[in-house]
Design goal:
This protein has ten helices and six strands, in the order E-E-H-E-E-H-H-E-E-H-H-H-H-H-H-H. It is of the alpha+beta class and 238 residues long. Strand 1 and strand 2 form a beta hairpin. 21% of the residues are buried.
Amino acid sequence: MNKYFEVIGKFEGDLEVLFGSFDRVDCKYEIEAEKTSWKDQGYKGIKIVSRLTDEKPDPTVYENLASKKEVMQIVSDLNEGDIQSYIEDGLITKVGKQYLINDKQLLTEIKKGVKIMSKSSELDRTVKLYILNCASDQAGTNEMMQIIKYIDDRFNAEYHWLVPKVGEVNAVTNWLQGLALNIDFNNYEILKLAVKWQSIPADYSEKQADKILSNYWHFMANKVLQLINNYRLPKGAK
């Protein structure tokens, strides 16, 4: 079964289908283009819904359709075969055993066979390289595995006793908040990092800032633990 998206609206009490596509992005574009016109015609409650169907998308209609093999050749190396991050970023929509590529650049790269990172994969790599760089002076080396060993040894010696009480992530969070590693710690610098990493826009709102600040230490603790566990070690590091 495949998921099919429809734009629906209510006209004089009855629901009508105004547009349909296997690609949800198509429906969003259609709403942006036609919403004013539909409202002028009397349609209300315009929204996107989905339903399951046995029908399959026609490759002659959906030029952004790619096979699983085409997609996996691109993402498997950089994202360990897990395309979920691409789906979460809205770059890919899964349709049965095929994929609709919602991003023009990604579609071009897939058809060319060039590897590209999703936004979340790029952030993962950037943050881990940042942590390694910040800890390199403390570790006295630029070699990745030696820095990771230094971090692991330090944490085990100083805060591992807390793990049975609060769990690994919370223990590492507390350890980092004690400024164990030379990562940024004041709010101004943390928000500068978030803008640099494109986690928030340069003109971020107070709500966006609060979300970054409240999650920062926990987020960094997760990345530290991933380094310690050798999970998705960043390519390009020594």
